[in-house]
Amino acid sequence: MPLEKVILAEGDDNLRRTVAEFIRSKRIDVAEAGTIQDVYNYLGKDEFDLVFIDAKLPECKLLDFFGDISQRAEKPLLIPLVNGEPDSFVLDCFKAGAFDYLAKPFSREQIEIALHKAGNFNHIARANAAMVEGVVDDADREILGECDLIMETRTLVKRVAQTQVTVLIQGESGTGKELVARALHAQSPRAQKPFIKINCAALPETLIESEFFGHEKGAFTGAVSKRQGRFELAHEGSILLDEISEISLAMQAKLLRVLQEQEFERVGGSKTVKVDVRVIATTNRNLEESVEKGEFRQDLFFRLNVVPVFVPPLRDRAGDVLFLAEKFRELFVRKHGIAVGSFSEESKKSLVDHDFPGNVRELQNVVERAVILCGADGVISPEQLNLTRNTANKTGGSAEGGTFQKLEEAEKAHIIRALAESGHNRTKAAKLLGVSVRTLRNKVTAYKKDAKTDEDLAKLGLDAD
Ligand SMILES: Nc1ncnc2c1ncn2[C@@H]1O[C@H](COP(=O)(O)OP(=O)(O)OP(=O)(O)O)[C@@H](O)[C@H]1O
Ligand SMILES: [Mg+2]
Question: Rounded distance, CA 128 to CA 343, Å?
């Protein structure tokens, strides 16, 4: 993505004007500064992507200036314009954080290359920061499964990945929609470019537009600086609009325009931003029904649904439950370093009989818990799978209401089991749980407050005192 705003600090008026004019011809805003005071004035008022700065700018100690910039939250890239300074000075500039340097006299082409490099760097740095937020440890995992339905899904993903079309991935919670979306990107020609996810359900209405499209400085209370939206960050890559059914009708209209024109404006901005982004959306609601009810725009639905991909619920994937259970067992054995050999025949039966309202995610969690709880004999028993509770629910849909154990309670019970399993050795228990000793200690301290009896305390490995 090209840069937007640069400062050109150069004491020589003629040179400054010529260079500024050239940069403007590249459709980049230039603030011209003749002194270091001018530079600071600009930095106080606005945000810049890059500062070109004359190494001999009056009253400026260049290295101090670089040091100051490196302390700031918003750091423009720095390119000194040097003229006969020794190599050691240039080296010091790099040490102090310079992005590049230009030696006078420089050509237009050299300026152009510097601008181009800086633009690319900015884009990658920002996209990286956004991707790191969403990274999960199984980000690159394959879509596993041997049943016909999953084989069809894999074939479809492979074929569609080569195209630019928008894909709508539908399926119940935990079926692997995000996994499919990541696979689509990874197998596409855009694989080396950013994959940016935006969770439409998690964002309050007031923030969603700026999350999508970014905002200019001062666009609203709290917008203290310019910010790129997810669409810009995903430039040349793919964007995953997770739980798309959750966005408001007003946002739907804006999204439609981006899908049609590949352009938008930032919140509080008037400049049109153009992007090249491949859109993937997921939903665990039936979007066609939402369209019928008037909650979702039909035209947007058509735009998104160019290629529909349905990820089937686990209960429809005959044969895959045991296959996946086995794969997950291997995975968690490796992850936790516990030797767990196999599932007993009865536990295989309980897996096959269960209908997994939480789909693959539930299966994965069940197997992880069982691997952790499994005793020294290395065979997983039905008790360790603990699947009886939901098995009756053959109609699908997730279990709700009062009988369903709260996450917090389940976590506490799980921690108590790990403590028992490890003979109340917290280091071992933390390892079993895959958390730090500190996390475990904090949890135990919190439970201690609620412990009512000596027995409660003993379970936590604490004395009654
Ligand atoms: N076929 C599969 N092979 C391997 N792992 C899978 C498969 N399907 C799902 N998983 C794993 O199950 C978990 C849930 O998958 P994912 O997050 O993609 O589901 P989802 O459909 O997006 O769920 P939600 O609707 O709740 O967001 C992930 O850890 C994912 O890696
Ligand atoms: Mg998901």
Answer: 41
